[in-house]
Structure to design on (122 residues):
């Protein structure tokens, strides 16, 4: 990892923990606030540890962009959890074949950047 990228990643990690420290749930209830703070911390630890051995610069950049997007969305909507996406169901495709593979490929491509690692961890 080049030094600038390392500093950027460590800065994001610290920023997430500062956000978690100041976090207030949308409902204002203490129990929910505590639960959401723990979620933010655990999610950050899990994803950063999972990606600590990544060496490909493009993949590192993608992880940084995902992190920044999740921070912005979380702060904007005041929810720490990833926002769900609404893609059409794959009910029209056959159980096998080119159509199914094509629909799976389209679903993977259309997945927003802030959800790239969410399914892998949850």
């Amino acid at each position: 990892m080049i030094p600038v990228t390392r500093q950027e990643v460590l800065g994001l990690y610290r920023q997430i923990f500062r956000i978690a420290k100041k976090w207030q749930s949308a409902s204002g209830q203490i129990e929910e606030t505590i639960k959401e703070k723990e979620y933010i911390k655990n999610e950050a630890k899990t994803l950063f540890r999972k990606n600590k051995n990544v060496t490909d610069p493009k993949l590192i950049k993608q992880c940084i962009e995902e992190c920044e997007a999740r921070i912005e969305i979380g702060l904007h909507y005041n929810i720490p959890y990833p926002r769900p996406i609404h893609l059409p169901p794959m009910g029209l495709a056959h159980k096998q074949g080119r159509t199914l593979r094509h629909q799976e490929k389209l679903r993977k491509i259309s997945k927003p950047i802030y959800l790239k690692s969410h399914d892998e961890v949850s």
